[in-house]
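User: Please fill in residues for this 505-position structure.
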């Protein structure tokens, strides 16, 4: 365990991080892992993770970190033994690419072009057949009822078998919900209710946001939706893509004058609260937690300062650069920061100019402006030069939507994932796990069966050490209380970067 101050000077001159962005083969069958340390007897289940596993098709490369074809990974833990298995998800994007030996469906940052073997008239008309949305479900996996689905940010999710990793079927959410796309980060209530944020095409070439609900009942009182200055240009999405072969990234635009808006709605009944909460511009990809306390909504976020779109810095050409060039690019990118915002529920216009936040444990403020909007200033919970606390996790089962203390995250050092972090959001104390030339994934919290405290449990992360000749990847098990190592299960294969996943008991 190293201190967070010590961590800031760590360098990666050997560039081993490039290996986590290289293609790999799937496995014919699970392989045994070499276990060191002692795995807790109660830890019996599967760690499921997804991410890009194929970064090119023949001679055609994918260009963005969110383009590689979806690969699902599984570490099985039972009676102190561990096996590792992985398979590509048989999406339409993958199957057709393998069949035609080229990129067939446009991905996030990579455009697909017509089949060069077709004659000129066939290629011409292919451009006018409309947008074929990708089903490359490489971002996350989550349960709905008794089933499990891999997902990305489009309207397609893919049902998979968590035991065999077999692809079962493709599901188009447009057949069930009024959406054109949903996020890969749904919120699941204790009773199994699943919420997500989606968008649909509105009037006058606009996008409307909506909140799809799967299942029935939820006890929480509010939705908080954060609207950042990064937008989809719908006109470009619907027209220029099909004509010129552009990709998803080409359709994003950033408004340097908009700032960021917080929208509030009640859950039951579902009604929009017409208070305008606003603050300075930031990017946002992951929320940590949100809860109601004494008439206020507390919102903890992993932010990136400014309106410049962070995904612009996640092209594979950038993250595969030598270390000095990676650092230069990160210096131009928005600065990451963990922030706490507080939204007052009881607002009166006559309180103009007054800080409306009276919670004793935060320095976040909310001030009524002359136009009736409420200007928010955050409390900074964590900040380090080009050091991001990202891919956040909490004791989700017990503390999602509640006043909590601990968050766990993947530490990004100039966009390179090189450490696992724990943050006390009340005291701002941090703990770090790190090894030289080791590149972990998002840490998942698993609560101990006899847990008494919020952080009684373990963290699970896949770690890659590209410089090691034998068993270069392993499942890491950490004590969530102090981030000391409990055990590791090493395998003799490389494992590429994974994005999100879940633990299935």
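Assistant: Residues filled in for all 505 positions:
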């Amino acid at each position: 365990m190293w201190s967070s101050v010590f961590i800031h000077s760590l360098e990666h001159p050997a560039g081993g991080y490039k290996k986590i962005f290289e293609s790999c083969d799937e496995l014919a069958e699970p392989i045994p892992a070499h276990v060191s340390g002692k795995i807790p007897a109660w830890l019996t289940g599967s760690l499921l993770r997804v991410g890009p596993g194929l970064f090119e098709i023949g001679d055609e490369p994918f260009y963005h970190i969110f383009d590689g074809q979806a690969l699902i990974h599984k570490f099985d833990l039972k009676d102190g033994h561990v096996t590792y298995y992985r398979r590509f998800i048989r999406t339409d994007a993958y199957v057709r690419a393998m069949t035609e030996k080229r990129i067939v469906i446009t991905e996030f940052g990579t455009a697909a072009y017509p089949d060069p073997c077709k004659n000129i008239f066939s290629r011409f008309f292919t451009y006018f057949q409309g947008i074929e949305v990708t089903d490359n479900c490489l971002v996350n996996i989550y349960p709905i009822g008794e089933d499990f689905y891999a997902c990305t940010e489009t309207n397609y999710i893919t049902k998979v078998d968590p035991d065999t990793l077999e692809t079962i079927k493709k599901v188009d959410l447009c057949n069930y919900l009024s959406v054109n796309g949903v996020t890969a980060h749904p919120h699941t209530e204790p009773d199994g209710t699943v919420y997500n944020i989606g968008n649909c095409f509105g009037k006058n070439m606009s996008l409307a946001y909506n909140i799809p609900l799967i299942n029935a009942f939820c006890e929480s009182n509010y939705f908080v939706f954060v609207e950042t200055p990064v937008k989809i240009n719908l006109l470009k999405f619907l027209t220029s893509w099909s004509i010129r072969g552009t990709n998803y990234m080409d359709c994003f635009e950033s408004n340097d004058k908009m700032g960021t808006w917080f929208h509030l709605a009640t859950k039951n009944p579902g009604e929009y609260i017409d208070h305008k909460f606003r603050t300075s511009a930031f990017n946002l990809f992951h929320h940590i937690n949100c809860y109601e306390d004494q008439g206020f909504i507390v919102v903890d976020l992993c932010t990136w300062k400014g309106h410049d779109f962070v995904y612009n810095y996640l092209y594979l050409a950038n993250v595969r650069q030598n270390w000095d060039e990676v650092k230069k690019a990160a210096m131009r990118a928005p600065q990451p920061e963990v922030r706490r915002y507080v939204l007052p529920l009881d607002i009166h216009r006559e309180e103009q100019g007054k800080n409306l936040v009276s919670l004793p444990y935060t320095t976040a403020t909310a001030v009524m402006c002359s136009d009736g909007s409420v200007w928010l200033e955050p409390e900074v919970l964590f900040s380090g030069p080009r050091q991001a606390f990202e891919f956040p996790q909490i004791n989700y089962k017990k503390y999602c939507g509640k006043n909590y203390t601990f968050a766990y995250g993947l530490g990004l050092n100039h966009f390179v994932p090189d450490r696992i972090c724990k943050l006390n959001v009340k005291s701002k104390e941090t703990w770090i796990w790190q090894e030289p030339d080791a590149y972990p994934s998002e840490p998942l919290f698993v609560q101990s069966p006899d847990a008494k405290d919020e952080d009684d449990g373990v963290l699970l992360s896949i770690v890659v050490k590209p410089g090691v000749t034998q068993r270069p990847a392993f499942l890491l098990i950490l004590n969530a209380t102090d981030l000391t190592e409990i055990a590791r299960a090493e395998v003799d294969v490389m494992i590429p970067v994974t994005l999100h996943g879940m633990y299935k008991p």
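For context: The helical segments are 4-7, 92-100, 120-126, 234-244, 316-319, 323-332, 396-399.
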